[in-house]
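Researcher: Sequence recovery benchmark, item below. Answer with residues only.
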């Protein structure tokens, strides 16, 4: 317990460093949050622009702005959105359920497909099936996700008309009964989940394959075979548990994605999640929203590493932390 408390405390300076870098980058990028308000209105005077700068606190030195933001962060207040003056925290939490739904489903199917594929390829090492699956996985890994998303939209949404290509619900969603609503949401999720799964299969399956191959070389596996155990018993009762460590690392690092969302998928599919909100905020220089999403993602990244360390001790009792 002392080790994990120490890890949490040591993560605080890292978190502050991440927020400083993010805050600095946002402020040195060309353009200001007030540009979207003033540039399209020729009647706005220089005095009005200056008052807007003062209203948002953008006339203060960088370190003063960051200190003010950091004080609000202590009470989990990211400030108000420059776009509509709504609390950034509320806007982020409104999009949170949709992002969690999309990414939990994606992670579930990635694990459901990748782990058996990795195990199968390890058992059938260097066979035609292993080489064929490896080639297909590397092709899927190499395909740009935005291109694959557009191809799926054109094929299944435009040409075949089987699936919706944007949003999470249809326009008449409020008039549907509960079963129709579930079916409608499911249809909208198929394309983004499919794209997410296809481009992510290679990583976890390759880790599973390499981990399984390493374990199958161990003496205790040979002993298990010598005792007359079946291949299924050896693989699932003895070998699989010891291949969990690399998978735990990958899954632990996937935790930030459950909340942070995907800027690419959500923007292309007009999905109402945090990723699309972050993209819109970056384009509008909406600093409070960007900082809120970046901070949540950083916290979850650090938390994911700590959770992975905890799971290591359950997967391998030989691992002890002091």
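Model:
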């Amino acid at each position: 317990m002392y080790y994990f408390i120490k890890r949490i405390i040591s993560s605080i300076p890292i978190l502050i460093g991440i927020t400083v870098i993010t805050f600095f980058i946002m402020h040195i990028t060309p353009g200001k949050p007030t540009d979207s308000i003033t540039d399209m209105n020729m009647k706005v005077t220089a005095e009005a622009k200056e008052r807007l700068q003062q209203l948002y606190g953008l006339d203060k030195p960088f370190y003063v702005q960051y200190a003010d933001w950091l004080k609000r962060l202590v009470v989990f207040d990211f400030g108000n959105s420059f776009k509509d003056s709504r609390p950034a925290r509320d806007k982020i939490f409104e999009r949170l359920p949709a992002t969690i739904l999309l990414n939990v489903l994606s992670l579930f199917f990635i694990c459901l497909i990748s782990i058996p594929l990795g195990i199968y390829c390890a058992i059938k090492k260097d066979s035609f099936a292993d080489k064929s699956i490896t080639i297909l996985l590397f092709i899927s890994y190499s395909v740009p996700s935005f291109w694959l998303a557009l191809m799926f939209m054109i094929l299944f949404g435009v040409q075949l008309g089987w699936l919706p290509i944007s949003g999470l619900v249809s326009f008449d969603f409020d008039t549907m009964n509960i079963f129709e609503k579930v079916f409608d949401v499911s249809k909208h999720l198929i394309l983004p989940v499919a794209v997410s799964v296809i481009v992510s299969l290679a990583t976890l399956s390759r880790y599973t394959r390499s981990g399984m191959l390493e374990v199958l070389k161990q003496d205790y596996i040979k002993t298990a075979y010598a005792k007359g155990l079946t291949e299924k018993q050896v693989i699932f009762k003895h070998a699989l548990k010891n291949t969990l460590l690399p998978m735990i690392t990958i899954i632990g690092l996937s935790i930030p994605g459950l909340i942070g969302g995907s800027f690419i998928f959500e923007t292309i599919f007009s999905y109402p999640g945090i990723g699309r909100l972050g993209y819109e905020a970056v384009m509008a220089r909406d600093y409070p929203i960007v900082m809120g999403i970046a901070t949540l993602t950083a916290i979850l990244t650090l938390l994911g590493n700590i959770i992975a360390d905890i799971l290591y001790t359950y997967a391998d009792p030989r691992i002890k932390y002091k």
